[in-house]
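User: Here's a chain of 66 residues. Predict its fold as tokens.
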Amino acid sequence: FGTGVNVTPNPQPTMTGILAEPGVAARFIEANERGARVNTDLSTGWDFWPLMALPLAGARASLGIA
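Assistant: Prediction complete.
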């Protein structure tokens, strides 16, 4: 629905959201795939302090961040 595609058998008003903008849906899917490859849940309870001594590339590698 957010892309303006009517997925019902009934006529619907056309309403679009941000995913209808050219390229946004593809970038959203790519970002979601990148996030799924991260090996640590960064949303809660993770200890970032051990990573502070690492160079940025090393910290990203240890977390599986592309």
